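Morning. Coffee machine broken again, so started the prediction first thing and wrote up yesterday's gels while waiting. Chain of 175 residues, entered below exactly as on the submission form.
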Amino acid sequence: MAEPARAIMTGDIVRVRIRIANPARAHELANLLRELGHITDSADADVTLTDAESSGLHLVGEDASNARGVLPADASPRQIDAALRAVASGLGVQTPQRERFSALEEHEAPSPLTPRELEILIALSDGLSNKQIARRFDISQHTVKFHAESIFRKLGATTRAEAVAKGLRQGLVHL
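Came back before lunch.
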């Protein structure tokens, strides 16, 4: 089986072209990417990083016809690095928040869950523990437990697996 062109593995350098309207933000991102070990403004870029729609960071792969990934404007350095590597490898990137809005757009009835509860439900569907969820959202484990109990009550579930299954059936989460 032939190996994909420009396969990127953890630790490999990604060549990034930055197309950000705000010069200060572009400079900040360039510095961050260099700190992460990537090459910026390469003529032969693997990924183009842009804010074309000002709704976050858009990542475009070699095929410049459309965004292969979208990150929130406040994405962490770790998220940016992982997304760049994924797009350079030919994968797409979709954040849980984007999935949540996609799920809401597909259904006429709004979710019975709050935006934070939807984020917690998505994290539950990823198989994360309360401690991992707390770290992801920078909240306490007690707060995670509070949200999980609220999710169970609103969805009529008694376990994490049942809540995820009901969330899948209702289109609240996607695997």
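The CA atoms of residues 30 and 40 lie 6 Å apart. Going to sketch it on the whiteboard this afternoon.
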